[in-house]
Amino acid sequence: MTFARRAAVLGSPIAHSLSPVLHRAAYRELGLDDWSYDRFEVDEAALAGFVGELDSSWAGLSLTMPLKRAILPLLDEVTDAAASVEAVNTVVLTEDGRRVGDNTDIPGIIAALRERGVERVESAAILGAGATASSALAALARICPGPVTAYVRSEARAEEMRGWGERLGVDVRTAGWDDAAEAFATPLVIATTPAGTTDPLAASVPEAPGTLFDVLYDPWPTRLAAAWSARGGKVVGGLDLLVHQAVLQVEQMTGRVPGPLAAMRAAGEKALAAH
């Protein structure tokens, strides 16, 4: 069976990705029966070859680690948002064959926070310093006029985060990971670290905390998110981010606006509950 339009998520490792579940749910809801969405294990060395063989049936790509920066030299155009953090998670293939890169993580973070009633904060903290942390900084540049403190494990990471702050126009201050519990005094904490990293911090959640945005979605809740909720704090999770960035990808790739956010979230929740 041939499909009129194709899309996929690329990365390594990729087997865990929920993107196919979300995008396929969107296609069903939109009645796009001739669209398909798959996942491919592609590392940096194989990326150019994969992209070079895409034909006119392809509408777009989602990119996860380690490809968000590796894709940049292969694109014809990059949006301002993606250029600001040198990271692309979305490639739209236009009818005239051009490859346009975007970053939907940044507006996805803002949309996920807005959905929970967080539209502006006076200060914030970020736990970690990887690619998601730079996207979080770019999002905070739009909603946080005050300082952002990044809690990191090395001076090299601290310097990197300060550099992103200068580039994005954010007042970034840095502190060591040993002091990470101090982040909880700010109205918004964005945790961008791998699974298990913040577990020891769960015991340090204060009474009446602000908002925690934990970008993990499996396992969920994290120990930190559970402790935060138990103390009455507001929690935004990784599935919220995943769904909001994915619905923007669907809108760009299909041209159908608005994308079916509720159907995509329901599919994601069902998939996570099943394993």
A few lines on this structure:
The protein has helices at residues 19-30, 44-52, 80-85, 105-115, 131-143, 155-168, 223-230, 238-254, 261-273, and strands spanning 5-11, 35-41, 58-63, 77-78, 90-93, 99-102, 124-127, 148-152, 172-176, 188-191, 211-214, 234-236. It is an alpha/beta fold and 275 residues long.
List the helices and strands and how they pair.
Blueprint: E1 5-11, H1 19-30, E2 35-41, H2 44-52, E3 58-63, E4 77-78, H3 80-85, E5 90-93, E6 99-102, H4 105-115, E7 124-127, H5 131-143, E8 148-152, H6 155-168, E9 172-176, E10 188-191, E11 211-214, H7 223-230, E12 234-236, H8 238-254, H9 261-273
Parallel strand pairs: 1-2, 1-3, 4-6, 7-8, 7-10, 8-9, 10-11, 11-12
Antiparallel strand pairs: 3-5, 5-6
Helix pairs in contact: 1-8, 1-9, 4-5, 4-8, 5-6, 8-9
Q: How would you describe this structure to a colleague?
A:
- There is one protein chain.
- This protein is an alpha/beta fold and 275 residues long.
- Helix content is 37%, strand content 20%.
- It has helices at 19-30, 44-52, 80-85, 105-115, 131-143, 155-168, 223-230, 238-254, 261-273, and strands at residues 5-11, 35-41, 58-63, 77-78, 90-93, 99-102, 124-127, 148-152, 172-176, 188-191, 211-214, 234-236.
- Strands 2-1-3-5-6-4 form a 6-stranded mixed sheet.
- Helix 1 links the parallel strand 1 and strand 2.
- Helix 5 packs parallel to helix 6 and helix 8 packs across helix 9.
- The longest helix is centred in the C-terminal third of the chain and has 17 residues, at 238-254.
- The model has no long low-confidence stretch (mean pLDDT 96).
